[in-house]
Every structure is written in C-alpha cells, then in structure tokens.
Amino acid sequence: MIKEIINKDNKQVMNEVAKDLIRKYKIDDSFYIADLKILENKINNWKELLPRIEPFYAIKCNPNRGIIKYMIEKGLNFDCASMNELKLVLELGVKNIEDKIIYSHPVKKRKDLKYANDIGVKYTTFDSLSELYKIIETSSNMKCLIRLHVNNPSARIQLGLKYGVHKDEYKSLLDKARELNIEIVGCSFHVGSASNDPTVFFNGISYAKEVFLYCNNLGYNMNILDIGGGFTKENFLDCAKVIDQTLKEDKFWKNKKLIAEPGRYFAEEIFTFVSPIIGSRKRQERNEYWLSDSLYGSYNCIIYDDQIPTYEIVRNPLLDNNFDDKILYETTLFGSTCDSLDKLATIKLPELRNGDFILNNRFGAYTIAGATDFNGINLTNIPIYYINS
Ligand SMILES: Cc1ncc(COP(=O)(O)O)c(C=O)c1O
Q: Does the Cβ of 263 fall within 6 Å of ligand 1?
C-alpha cells in the first residue's frame, strides 16, 4: 500500500529545537540540526514503496559522517564518485565493498580508478571509449554498467546535458567494449536531479531493456539495472508507482538486480540550517542584513542546485524579545564574504538584530557538500547537532 510520506513540514518544530540549542550552548554562529528520525522514516518509506530496488546513497549529496554511519548500521549501500568518497565510507566501517559500493561516475581519474580496483570495488559506470581504455589500464577486475542518456527538461539539474550514451551511439561503443574484452554487466541512467516528470523513469527503463537485449546478443550476461537518483519528497510516490509498475509488468526484469542512487531524497529533509545575522544596515525603507554564512558556503545551493530557500527567523532567546514580527520590511540578505555577488535573497522580513538567526529547513541536499572557506571564513566546518525527534 502506498502511503503518504511520513514527516510533515517541520519548520515550527525545528524553530523550537534551534532556540533550545542556542540557549543551552550559547551558540553565536551557524549550525546544522540533523534529525535521524527523518532518515529512519525515509529508509522505511523506500523499503515499503520500492522493495525490489536497493538504494545506494549518493555520497556527493551530503557526505556527512553521522548520516553515513547511521546508513551503514542500517545496511544501506553507497554510490561513491571519487577516491575521497571511497576512503570516507571505508573509514566509517563499510564492509563487503563488492556488494555495498558502486563507483558511479562515468569519467574518473586514473589514480582514483586504480585505488577503487585495489580496495575491491567491483562495479563502475562509463559512457565513452576513453573511459574503457582507462579501465583496461588501471582496473581490470571491474565490471561495468553503461550509463544511458535520458532526456528530461523537467529536471531542475539536467544531468543528461553532460552524461549518458545516446541511442545512436550505444551499439558501436558496446561492440568496441566486446572487442576490448571489457565485462559489461548492466545499464545505469539518471533522469536528472529533482525531476518533475515521473514518466521519464519509464523511458529510462525501456531504453535499458533495448541495450540489455543488444548486449545479450553480444554474449554478455546482463544482470544489473541502476535507475539512478532524481527523487524528491514531492515526486517520490509518483516515481515509485511508475517504476514499480514498469518493472512488474515486464517479466524481463524479474530476476535482475535492481538498484538506485538516491541522494536528495534521503539527505534533504534531515538537515535544518541556522545562521546568525552578523551585520545590519538600514537604507531608506530597506533593511540589509549580513548572515554568517554565504553563497560560498551552504547557500551555494542557490547557484549550483537552483534552490530557492525559505527563510524563517529564530529570535535569539538570549536577547530581549519584545518584537512585533507581523510588521514586514523589504529586506536584503547578504552573505558574509567581501564579494558583491554574495547576496542570498531579497524578501520581506520583520526587523532583525545582530544575533538573531535565520533558519532554512530541508537544507541537507547539495548545500554544505559544495561549500568553500572563501575569504578565510569558516563555511565548511559547521557544527551539527543530531536529534531523534
Ligand atoms: C551519478 C549520480 N548518481 C546519483 C546522483 C544523486 O542524484 P539525486 O540527488 O537527484 O538523487 C547524482 C547527482 O548528481 C549523480 O550524478
């Protein structure tokens, strides 16, 4: 039975949690709250709606050690995209590397490939001849999944613009792979991150079947279908329905290993971000505030992930609080670096003071993962408070 996603909008709850933390620990800089209960709910939802599909969490989305450890305990698998991501999951204790990790990046560095091969990673992806030559030279034990192109203009981040073998390319590439004695065991695709069109999964799976059949004719024993990521809180039910139905209706997929590489679906809602106002200015009718964080920090998601965060206020519980938060002013929020481009939003907010905080919920996907310490400002090493709500 397909259920509603469990966790409701938790802004209010997180606002109270943030206040308690600020009061208790006298916090005066940015911090994250990570709710492991949400992660537990997500894992359970996945198992319920897509029981046949094994999720490999895409570390790139948020390589947070706490959630990765939790996922290891829960038996989840991992999609790593680099040597450092491989090292991270190893350090955190992942066992059975062969089964638990896929090195899912179609274009890898030679030394990263060699490292992956040496530690026993078994599966990787490719979408070019150049990658196949690299695999022969560095990682001959590896088995390959051909990454297929899926067109999806509805996705917020269209990965098809960069990766995936087109329909008029796969035959010659696979013929060549056969000649080179590369072991091909499956297909992967990614419909783009934050997809808005569940039916693209049908297109991806149909394309994969065509390629499976071609490969079987070449003498390959094709066994793995990797349906990538693209899931969000909003699209998960619909995507799960399309995927489940497509795979169930066609006996072809019956005994195949089915996997996926969700990032955003698991990470996004776990994290709430809280950052203080460190500077203010009034200009005519406009209030201007500087946050401790920046477009170079967690708010890089505005540029790289096309996110439009929502900004809630958290009054500092350690200051006097006699404000009427119903009166709103035109407000500009700046980030903390010297770059004039470092402007986060123009919105309406109540009058704020240095020391009050801004809260962004659903802030765990492609946020801190892309942060830098530009200007020498610490934007990458942000304290995280774990809760289990
Ligand atoms: C190869 C690959 N797998 C999985 C993901 C995770 O995608 P999502 O966060 O949309 O689930 C990405 C995101 O860029 C990716 O490139």
A: yes
